[in-house]
Design brief:
Layout: H1 4-16, E1 23-24, H2 29-32, E2 40-45, E3 50-54, E4 60-61, H3 66-78, H4 99-103, H5 114-124, H6 130-145, E5 151-152, H7 154-163, H8 165-176, H9 184-195, E6 197-199, H10 201-207, H11 209-212, H12 227-240, H13 246-252, E7 257-259, E8 264-269, E9 273-278, E10 281-282, H14 289-302
Antiparallel strand pairs: 1-10, 2-3, 2-9, 4-6, 5-6, 7-8, 8-9
Bound molecules: glutamine.
Pfam families: Glutaminase
Family: Belongs to the glutaminase family.
Protein name: Glutaminase
């Protein structure tokens, strides 16, 4: 195997030349303005070494990747009680689908589809006002990445609020089943702001390290979650992290991963590395087209698929 530094550099170079980059999300107006020619990658190894390439330092809207962090916080607050309000099965449906909520009594299939993440946001409101819950998410992510410069792009949150009819419908529908405890505007306020977190690949990969190391941040030794919880979050990422594209992502890449419509993907190599990739063009299922391709090549060249025998 070539060394990891040159594998990352090669992949960044290969992605630069790609023409078939997918479509930038346009249903959230500020995201439609991001140039599709961006590509970034950052790989943080267990010893803290970072291998970065392309636009790895440029902040982007992490969108649904934030659902990993909000889930971690909600589990810290109410533990397994969460699972009476959110399922743990892949949905096989689009990230913003409403159909299963009718037959399943307002219980979303998993915490990574929008409906599930809105319930998780509702749980976070037990910590205080919407502003306090949002501040708690920001504090958590800054602490994980050990970077106080990470911020929330208020214009992205405001644009989602102005255009988020589908999410409003999901929230109202779940509230009608009694699965939201707070006013829908509050749960959505938390949800839209967490989605509007702006982070670079380097910052995102740093923030995901605890998932690669049994719940412990290897830089500080701090226990973020128990080893069992880290494994379970990874299991959910593998099975649900790319919505109705999760099977394809597992097939091609073989790593737990969580995507967002900003074009970011956080991927975890247990025991070895935390990886973030970013390319704003999306495939038909709303996941980064080049991000997935880059991870597929990275896993193939490093042998990092979790299904590969050591
Ligand atoms: N904020 C986006 C939405 O609610 C997140 C979707 C995504 O990243 N898949 O539509």
């Amino acid at each position: 195997m070539k060394n990891i530094a040159s594998i990352v550099a090669d992949i960044a170079e290969e992605m630069r030349g790609m023409t078939d980059r997918g479509q930038v999300a346009n249903y959230i107006p500020p995201l439609a303005c991001v140039s599709p020619d961006r590509f970034g990658i950052a790989v943080v190894m267990a010893d803290g070494t970072v291998h970065a390439g392309g636009d790895a330092e440029e902040p982007f809207s992490i969108q649904s990747v934030s659902k990993v962090f909000s889930l971690t916080l909600a589990l810290g607050m109410i533990g397994d009680a969460l699972w009476s309000r959110v399922g743990r099965e892949p949905s096989g449906s689009a990230f913003n689908s409403i159909v299963q909520l009718e037959t399943e009594q307002g219980i979303p299939r998993n915490p990574f589809i929008n409906a599930g993440a809105i319930v998780v946001a509702d749980v976070l409101l037990a910590s205080g006002t919407p502003a306090e819950a949002i501040a708690g998410v920001l504090r958590f992510v800054r602490g994980l990445a050990r970077d106080e410069t990470i911020s929330i792009d208020a214009s992205v949150a405001a644009a989602e609020l102005a255009t988020g009819y589908r999410n409003l419908a999901l929230a109202n529908y779940m509230r009608s089943f009694g699965n939201l405890m707070h006013p829908v505007e509050q749960a959505l306020g938390v949800y839209f702001h967490q989605c509007a977190l702006a982070m670079s690949c380097r910052q995102l990969a740093m923030a995901g390290r605890f998932l690669a190391h049994d719940g412990r941040d290897p830089a500080t030794g701090r226990c973020i979650v128990t080893p069992q919880r880290a494994r379970r979050i990874n299991a959910l990422m593998m099975l649900c992290g790319h919505y109705d594209n999760s099977g394809e992502f597992a097939f091609r890449v073989g790593l737990p991963g969580k995507s967002g419509v900003g074009g970011g993907i956080l991927a975890v190599v247990p025991g070895t590395a935390s990886i973030a990739v970013w390319s704003p063009g999306l495939n038909a299922k709303g996941n980064s087209q080049l991000g997935a391709l880059a991870l597929e090549r990275l896993a193939a060249r490093t042998g990092w698929s979790v299904f590969e025998a050591a």
